[in-house]
């Protein structure tokens, strides 16, 4: 859904057009926050400075984090293919109807656009998703260096994730950022019924009243 909203909104913006005195292709700092969800690195707090609080010493660190950016699933890919129709309409507006306002460079770039999706890794973590968590880990290490200088063992650090590939890979990326790739931290086996990370998955009431109840998300879908 992230890619669908992002791409569709971007092409819709192109359809509306802009003055031919400027080109999207020449913008060095384009507006990129078109989606309802955005890769963390695009909006992250990049402050990696040491955290100092007078008369205080960091003793413990814990975080519950969502996985990084994932690939689309089959249904989302099918929806993305509708963008070809929008692409064709924009080009037709310019070349046949004379009603478009894109500069020549933008129009040529739009003609060259193709949908790039990977169909055999649906919902798995993307390279962008790995980088999201890896860099997040590095920043935390820079901000609280004393906590991460000790020897890495299964007793000193605990990492937990669900059975999904995207969450396991995100955990590995975060640990790689904290301690460096290949530090050998032992990871526990993911639990099928994890009451800490996914308590809702074992709740029949939630499944009935929320997940399978269309009224739960009707306002979100209206938005």
UniProtKB/TrEMBL annotation:
InterPro entries xrefs: His_Pase_clade-2 (IPR000560), His_PPase_superfam (IPR029033)
Record's signal peptide: 1-17
EC number: 3.1.3.62, 3.1.3.80
Identification of the protein by name: Multiple inositol polyphosphate phosphatase 1
Major location category of this protein: membrane
Superkingdom of origin organism: Eukaryota
Localisation: Membrane
Family affiliation: Belongs to the histidine acid phosphatase family. MINPP1 subfamily.
GO cellular component: membrane
GO MF entries: acid phosphatase activity; bisphosphoglycerate 3-phosphatase activity; inositol phosphate phosphatase activity
Keywords: Hydrolase, Membrane, Signal
Catalytic function, reaction form: (2R)-2,3-bisphosphoglycerate + H2O = (2R)-2-phosphoglycerate + phosphate; 1D-myo-inositol hexakisphosphate + H2O = 1D-myo-inositol 1,2,4,5,6-pentakisphosphate + phosphate; 1D-myo-inositol 1,2,4,5,6-pentakisphosphate + H2O = 1D-myo-inositol 1,2,5,6-tetrakisphosphate + phosphate; 1D-myo-inositol 1,2,5,6-tetrakisphosphate + H2O = 1D-myo-inositol 1,2,6-trisphosphate + phosphate
One Pfam family named in its UniProt record: His_Phos_2
């Amino acid at each position: 859904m992230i890619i669908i909203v992002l791409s569709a909104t971007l092409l819709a913006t192109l359809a509306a057009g802009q003055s031919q005195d400027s080109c999207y292709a020449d913008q060095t700092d384009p507006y990129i926050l078109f989606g309802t969800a955005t890769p963390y690195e695009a909006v992250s707090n990049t402050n990696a400075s040491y955290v100092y609080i007078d008369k205080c010493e960091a003793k413990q660190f814990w975080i519950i984090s969502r996985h990084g950016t994932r690939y689309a699933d089959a249904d989302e890919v099918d929806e993305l293919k509708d963008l070809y129709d929008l692409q064709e309409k924009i080009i037709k507006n310019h070349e046949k109807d004379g009603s478009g306002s894109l500069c020549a460079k933008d129009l040529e770039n739009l003609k060259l656009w193709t949908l790039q999706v990977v169909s055999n890794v649906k919902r798995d973590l993307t390279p962008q998703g790995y980088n999201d968590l890896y860099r997040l880990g590095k920043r935390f290490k820079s901000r609280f260096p004393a906590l991460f200088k000790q020897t890495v063992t299964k007793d000193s650090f605990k990492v937990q994730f669900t059975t999904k590939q995207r969450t396991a890979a995100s955990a590995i990326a975060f640990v790689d950022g904290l301690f460096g790739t290949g530090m050998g931290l032992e990871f526990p086996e993911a639990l099928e019924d994890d009451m800490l990370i996914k308590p809702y998955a074992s709740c029949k009431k939630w499944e009935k009243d929320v997940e399978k109840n269309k009224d739960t998300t009707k306002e979100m879908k209206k938005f």
